[in-house]
Amino acid sequence: MKVLFLGSSHFSKIVLQSMLEQKVKVVAVITAPDKEMGRGHKLQANEVKTFALKNGIDVFCSSSVKNDLEKIKEISFDLSVVASFGQILPKEFLDYKLCLNVHPSALPKYRGASPIQNAILNGDRQTAVTIMKVGLKVDSGDIALQQKVEILPDEMYNSLEEKLAIKGGVMIAQAVKLLKQNKLYFSPQIEQEATYVKKFNKDDGLLDFSKTQENIFNQVRALSENLGTFFYLKDQKIKVFAVKKSDEKIAINQIANDKNHFLIGCKDGAIEILNCLSPSGKKLNGKDFLNGFKPQGEFVNEFCRS
């Protein structure tokens, strides 16, 4: 069975790689056009395109499937698979051939742009990968397969994303096998149980130490690797890569007078900054940051509130 793959993100690339490892016959890839990158504004392909070409798969770049539909129909395929493509697919495309979506959540929970981040942010211990028929409404299509995936207590975004994407490729292979046997069945989602999640922006990475340890810990796990998490020290933006919870009792937003541990008070204790980026652009562990900048006793996030 010949598969047309549509995807444009890192998640998409891992799904595609997993599909190939499962011997799914991907005949062509549709992805976003090359983007201008860096100071020289040179066009650069995304990693889906790069990976596909490296593996001998034809690639068609499209900023609008609706406008390119006639060209897409010239591709010989039996089934299309979508994974983090970034476009709303037109009804004519969906009516042309069966189109399956790889979605990294336990639909109808977490429909939308950020299911992985929200599962971590909310402290979920479990999520899922769902294979569904693409519908006109976002992530609302009938479900064919759904498998649960454990979220480890300290798991970061990149680790969970990869785990879910690999699982997605394996499940697509299962779906193709069942489809060949006429045994792929679909069940409608329970609309009343649907929840929706937005796309995050850079401002969502600001760490608010008036929140709980768990809130901040989960925010760093969910957003630091893909969006960036940070706080302000005086007028300097300090990026944060890893934290852990501490039993120390410190005033909210205050940096502890501790030369060995970079502790900041929060609602129910303190957060220890394990790794961060100095204003000079150097990645440091918490102790080295304290020894270099000596900010003990000062308060964070004063600049952004002024």
Overview features:
single chain, 306 residues, alpha/beta, Rossmann fold, Methionyl-tRNA Fmet Formyltransferase, Chain A, domain 2, 2 domains, five-stranded antiparallel beta sheet, 9 helices, 16 strands, 27% helix
Written account of the structure:
It is a single chain. This protein is of the alpha/beta class and 306 residues long. The protein has helices at residues 10-21, 47-54, 69-72, 91-96, 115-121, 157-180, 213-223, 286-293, 302-305; strands at 2-6, 25-31, 35-37, 42-44, 58-61, 79-82, 99-103, 111-112, 126-133, 143-150, 196-197, 229-233, 236-246, 263-266, 269-277, 283-285. The protein folds into 2 domains: 2-197, Rossmann fold (3-Layer(aba) Sandwich); 202-305, Roll (Methionyl-tRNA Fmet Formyltransferase, Chain A, domain 2). It is built from 9 helices and 16 strands. The strands form 4 sheets. The protein has a 7-stranded mixed sheet. Strands 12, 13, 14, 15 and 16 form a 5-stranded antiparallel sheet that branches. α4 (91-96) links the parallel β6 (79-82) and β7 (99-103). The protein starts with a strand and ends with a helix. 37% of the residues are buried. The model has no long low-confidence stretch (mean pLDDT 95).
